[in-house]
Amino acid sequence: MEALHRIVRKLIKGKAAWVSDTALTKQLYLSLMHNEKSWKRPALGWKKIQRELIALHGERVLNHMRDS
Question: How far, in Å, are 14, 26, 27, 50, 55 from residue 30 at the CA level?
């Protein structure tokens, strides 16, 4: 979520106004599509986080992981 907010804020700060709402929508779409690859990277330390969640919540987390 923070990455999305950063991308939108950077886009809006760089330009004060758009010709139309459609132009803004198109520019937001293109910017988000260009930055989509950064969202698909695995989270740092995700395996450790998974182990801690399993230790805290056990079967509940494992059931959710199997369903996904």
Answer: 15, 6, 5, 33, 41
Quote the pTM value: 0.49
Pairwise CA distance, residues 34 & 28, whole Å: 10
pLDDT top residue among 39 and 10: 10
The CA–CA distances, whole Å, from 52 to 26, 32, 55 equal 41, 32, 5
DSSP string, 3-49: HHHHHHHHHHHH-S--SSHHHHHHHHHHHHHHHHHHHTSPPTTHHHH
